[in-house]
Design brief:
The protein is about 40% helix and about 10% strand. The chain is globular, with a radius of gyration of 20 Å. α2 links the parallel β1 and β2. The strands form two sheets. The protein has a four-stranded parallel β-sheet with strand order 2-1-5-6. It is of the alpha/beta class.
Length: about 300
């Protein structure tokens, strides 16, 4: 029987024992969004959560409940969705704007800090530039907390990629993501739902619910090898963060343990920079791609608007 590492499924004594052995917290992020007809909608968070659980079982640590509410429908995300998903009656997205997602992340880190974790890995399975903003946010948070933080997208941990070339590490609902989900949640991939080849007309991926053009090349065995690579990367990173903490235990910081601390940090540090976050591209300052979304598109309503913090 596998050792339980999922915070929400652990008894208090199990949590205390796991914390004493390795005070590492994994925080998986993703959302429900179109991933082709062959994958379930929760692919991003499902793969991130499963990979974090594998890492915690192999290297120690605890896995926070996955957060399925992530960035979409704003700015270039809306333009991408119009192109890749198409005009559908129901998008089945669990989307929130950047200022909601990243503020929630700030509260998640507060919880880790209040509990005394020494290493925190924030691991997102959702792509687009949000992962770059996650790294920016982690950089802003680090001086406020004692725990050593690291944020990354899962493809950064997929060091050899699909072709073992170090380059084919990420896609959207193509051979990489489909193979990864197939490896960790086989019931959530059904290759029998793939549309027949050839995919005509070329370039119209929106006809297949944002499916990657090379999804037919997905292989569960390659997915298992990529998962192994990601787990090895994460366990090594967790050990590195713990070693850094032990080598130079941080002094008491400026305080980041209360809700008021989070709100102050957000207003003083994050909000003034939010407009420059890459996931805001095309929202407050409308790009040509976003402006081209027609008024009758299902992607128009939330694509742009005033910056809110």
């Amino acid at each position: 029987m596998e050792r339980e590492v999922r915070w929400e499924r652990m008894f208090p004594d199990e949590l205390e024992a796991a914390f004493a052995a390795a005070p590492v917290l994994y925080m998986p992020y993703g959302l429900c969004e179109p991933h082709g007809p062959q994958n379930t909608l929760g692919l991003d968070a499902l793969k991130a959560h499963a990979i974090c659980c594998r890492a915690a079982r192999e290297g120690g640590g605890i896995v926070a409940p996955p957060d399925y509410w992530h960035i979409h429908e704003v700015g270039h995300y809306a333009a991408w969705a119009r192109r890749e998903v198409g005009e559908v009656a129901r998008t089945w997205l669990t989307a929130v704007p950047p200022w909601i997602h990243f503020k929630n992340v700030c509260y998640h880190v507060r919880a880790a800090e209040a509990l005394g974790f020494r290493a925190v890995i924030l691991f997102t399975g959702h792509y687009g530039p949000n992962w770059e903003d996650l790294k920016t946010l982690v950089g802003l948070l680090q001086p406020r907390v004692r725990a050593r933080l690291h944020g990354l997208p899962d493809f950064e941990a997929n060091v050899r990629g699909f072709d073992a070339d170090g380059k084919s590490a990420g896609d959207h609902a193509g051979r990489v993501e489909t193979s990864l989900l197939w490896a960790v949640e086989p019931a959530c991939v059904d290759p029998g739902r793939l549309p027949p080849l050839p995919l005509d007309p070329p370039g119209e991926t929106g006809r297949h619910f944002a499916m990657g053009r090379d999804a037919h090349q997905a292989r569960r065995q390659i997915g298992e090898r990529m998962v192994d690579d990601e787990v090895a990367f994460l366990t090594a990173k967790a050990a590195e963060l713990l070693a850094a903490y032990e080598a130079a235990p941080p002094a008491a910081g400026p305080g980041y343990r209360t809700f008021e601390d989070v709100e102050r940090f957000w207003v003083e540090t994050v909000a003034p920079r939010l407009g420059a976050f890459k996931s805001m591209n095309g929202y407050a300052e409308i790009t040509d791609e976003v402006a081209a979304i027609p008024d009758d598109s299902v992607w128009k309503a939330t694509a742009s608007g005033p910056l809110r913090t």
